[in-house]
Specification:
448 residues, alpha/beta, Collagenase (Catalytic Domain), Immunoglobulin-like, seven-stranded mixed β-sheet, five-stranded mixed β-sheet, 25% helix, globular, zinc
């Protein structure tokens, strides 16, 4: 059993020093690789918890909910074959001339550099054979999570999944305080897209992410909504992607900073639990004293629970050089799957990205086909459309008014829904679609 120490209390004495580092260093470019710090997500989360007590309570409740969900659903989490696909929008924020794209020290990075990062994410999260993301560790896992550059923007228009915005009011952005500014410069709804802002970060940090949270916890809804626009990942442009374009680092050059930060966005915690010998709530990562802050891939060891154990320096949630990293564990994969089910914004994003999505309408509409359907076929298709995300109930009745089926959906987006009618004898039937404010009833016929 790992040690669940008070991570908030541990960091209180450190935050002032971190602010000095951020403010006192204008650009990570001036520092050697050994001085860089991969991640500031936890520090920002602690700072936010101090400033917003409701956020701290919500994060604690979120962890409790994750643990409960994993215990209750562990068998299903381990057996599912579903591949979850995450639509990504990359917001490139730069101070260059619009036509100046790519090259060393240019924050207006190339499409090639961006594409290389999406490739890395998929190799790492899918444990793809023949790539650096593959491992033979018996606790290693394919997370069954994939990423792709969004092909439709929030207005339903075709897109490359990349936005470029010239912003000349500053040359770099503070990872502690400028997340709101970045979202004001460029943002797509965080319940439909994973927003990744790529820019020049001040200080020594490479990336930052917003942890997920649950809603409806003791009146904390407003706390969640106030952070909706900052929900995403921020990466310094010199560490986004793999060995191309603006990337010059010797050890942070394979795109693993983004793999690491997206792990936080999906609810993962550093392997050392952010305190000496702390917990990441995963028993298949060994107890770890602290982060691997070296520039090489040599073994490190910890003595946390008595016997000395080898640190899992190859885990994406350590601070190891990119070339060392190649593993998410089975527990970490289950934890990410739990977060995608529990966090309302994450769950809505997954629903939005599923195949069969339809353009929404202002009012509830239902179309059924084929209609009539022969009893040689087993499945009707229902095109159900409405505004934004809504809870939906489908009720199926026979001609006598006997209820045959009830299907309930939470936070559904307009989509095509299959309806199994394989056991229905020839006759007339009715489907009633019901949202919170509207009800629509449609008839269909089964014929020989």
């Amino acid at each position: 059993m790992k040690n669940p120490k008070n991570r908030v209390g541990h960091w209180l004495g450190v935050l002032a020093g971190l602010y000095l580092v951020v403010v006192g260093t204008s650009s990570a470019q001036q520092l050697p690789d050994s001085a860089l710090i991969r991640c500031v997500s936890v520090e920002r989360d602690i700072e936010r918890s101090i400033r917003e007590p409701q956020w701290r309570l919500n994060r604690q409740r979120t962890e409790q909910r994750i643990q409960e969900y994993m215990q209750t659903n562990r068998a299903r989490l381990r057996q599912t074959d579903e591949i979850i696909r995450i639509p990504v929008v990359v917001h490139v924020i730069h101070d260059q001339e619009p036509g100046s794209i790519g090259g060393i020290n240019n924050p207006n990075i190339s499409d090639e550099q961006i594409s290389s990062q999406i490739e890395v994410l998929n190799e790492d999260y899918r444990r793809e054979p023949g790539t650096r993301g593959f491992n033979t560790n018996p606790v290693g896992a394919d997370t069954r999570i994939e990423f792709y550059l969004a092909d439709l923007d929030p207005e339903g228009r075709s897109t490359s999944g990349i936005t470029r915005t010239q912003y000349t009011q500053r040359t770099s952005f503070n990872p502690f305080t400028d997340d709101q500014l970045l979202s004001n410069i460029a943002y797509w709804p965080s319940d439909k897209y994973l927003n990744i802002w790529v820019c020049r970060l001040s200080g020594t940090y490479l990336g930052i992410a917003q942890f997920p949270s649950v809603e409806g916890v003791g009146g904390l809804d407003n706390a969640n909504e106030s952070f909706e626009r900052t929900d995403g990942v921020i990466i310094d442009f010199r560490f986004f992607g793999r060995q191309t374009g603006a990337i010059t680092s010797r050890i942070y050059n394979l795109g693993r900073t983004t793999t690491h930060e997206v792990g936080h966005w999906l609810g993962l915690i550093h392997t050392w639990g952010d305190v000496d010998c702390g917990t990441d709530y995963c028993d298949d990562t060994p107890p770890t004293l602290d982060a691997n802050r070296t520039t090489v891939c040599t073994d490190k060891f910890s003595n946390c629970l008595g016997p000395t154990t080898r640190n899992m320096i190859e885990n994406y949630l350590d601070y190891s050089p990119d070339s060392c990293m190649n593993i998410f564990t089975k527990c970490q994969a289950e934890r990410m799957q739990a977060v995608l089910a529990l966090s309302p914004r994450r769950a809505r994003l997954v629903e939005f990205a599923r195949e069969g999505r339809l353009e929404p309408t202002d009012n509830l509409t239902v179309e059924i086909f084929p209609n009539p359907i022969t009893n040689e076929l087993t499945e009707l298709k229902l095109d159900v459309r409405f505004a934004d995300f809504q809870d939906l109930t489908l009720l199926v009745y026979d001609a006598r008014g006997v209820l045959l089926q009830t299907l309930d959906f939470q936070s559904l987006y307009s989509r095509r829904i299959p309806l199994d009618v394989s056991t229905y004898p020839p006759g007339m039937y009715f489907v009633r679609a019901r949202t919170r404010l509207e009800t629509v009833t449609k008839r269909f016929v089964v014929v020989k």
